[in-house]
Design a protein that fits this description.
The protein is mainly α and 243 residues long. Helix content is 67%, strand content 5%. 11% of the residues are buried.
Length: 243
C-alpha cells in the first residue's frame, strides 16, 4: 500500500513538472545581432546563427588566421600553425614578404630532412617484417602442407592420424602444440617491454625517437641562429620523422 501511495505521488509531481515546462504559446520574432551572429528568439533562445557579413571573413588557411590563433595552435603542436608562425617570424626578422619567407622555410625543410632516411627506412623495414611474420603464422597454423613441411624441418613432432587432420581446425589443434610456446613467449616479452617503457615515461626519460627529433631540432636551430630558437625547434619537432 505504501508503495502505491508513493508511486501516485511521484506521478502527480512529474505531471506538474511537465505542465510547468509546457510552452506558453508566445512566439517571439525578435532577432538580435551580436558579435556577428544572429539569434532568432522565435525559434530557440539558445540558437545562434552567423551572419553573411561575418562568414565572409572566415579564414580558410593558416595564412589568413590572426597571430593569436596561430600562436595558440602552434603551442598545441599543430604542424601547419608551427610553420606559419615560423614564416611570420622570418618576415619580421628579415623584413621580407610572405612569399619570400616561405622560400626560406622550404630551404630549412630540405636541411631538416637531411639524414633522416637512416632512421625512417629501418622503421618501415620493421613494420613490414611484423606484417610478414603475422601473415606467415596463418598457414603455419592451419594449412596442412605448410604445417607438415615446417614440422619436418623445425619440429619433428608426431603426426596425428588422418582422421584427426580432416579440417583446418584440427590442423590448428595439432600445430598449436609447437606454435603456442614461441607466440606466447613473444607476447609476454612485448608486454614486459611495454611495461618498462611506461616506467620510463613516469621517469620522464625521453624515448629513442624523441631524442632523435630533439637532436635534429637543435641542429637546425644552430644553423639558423638569427631566428628565435624555440620557434625553429618547435617547427622542426612538429614534423616528426616526416619531411
Amino acid at each position: 500500500i505504501l508503495g502505491k501511495i508513493m508511486l501516485s505521488v511521484l506521478r502527480h509531481v512529474s505531471r506538474r513538472n511537465l505542465l510547468s515546462l509546457r510552452p506558453s504559446g508566445r512566439v517571439l520574432s525578435l532577432s538580435t545581432v551580436q558579435h556577428g551572429h544572429t539569434e532568432d528568439l522565435g525559434r530557440s533562445p539558445s540558437l545562434v546563427q552567423p551572419t553573411l557579413d561575418y562568414v565572409k571573413n572566415l579564414p580558410c588557411g593558416y595564412s589568413e588566421m590572426d597571430n593569436d590563433s596561430i600562436v595558440l595552435l602552434a603551442s598545441n603542436g599543430d604542424q601547419g600553425a608551427c610553420e606559419e608562425r615560423l614564416v611570420r617570424v622570418i618576415m619580421a626578422t628579415d623584413s621580407i614578404e610572405w612569399e619570400e619567407a616561405t622560400e626560406v622555410v622550404e630551404e630549412m625543410r630540405t636541411y631538416n630532412r637531411e639524414g633522416m632516411d637512416k632512421f625512417v627506412i629501418p622503421q618501415w623495414g620493421f613494420i613490414g617484417s611484423c606484417f610478414l611474420v603475422g601473415v606467415i603464422t596463418f598457414p603455419l597454423c592451419f594449412h596442412e602442407p605448410s604445417a607438415t613441411y615446417f614440422n619436418e624441418i623445425m619440429v619433428t613432432a608426431d603426426v596425428p592420424p588422418p582422421e584427426d587432420r580432416e579440417t583446418w581446425l584440427e590442423i590448428g589443434i595439432w600445430t598449436w602444440n609447437w606454435m603456442e610456446p614461441p607466440l606466447g613467449h613473444a607476447s609476454f616479452f612485448i608486454l614486459c617491454c611495454d611495461f618498462a617503457r611506461a616506467q620510463l615515461d613516469n621517469l620522464k626519460y625521453p624515448r629513442w625517437h624523441t631524442r632523435i627529433i630533439d637532436g635534429r631540432a637543435a641542429k637546425i636551430a644552430n644553423r639558423y641562429p638569427q631566428y628565435p630558437r624555440p620557434i625553429v625547434e618547435a617547427w622542426s619537432a612538429s614534423h616528426g620523422f616526416s619531411p
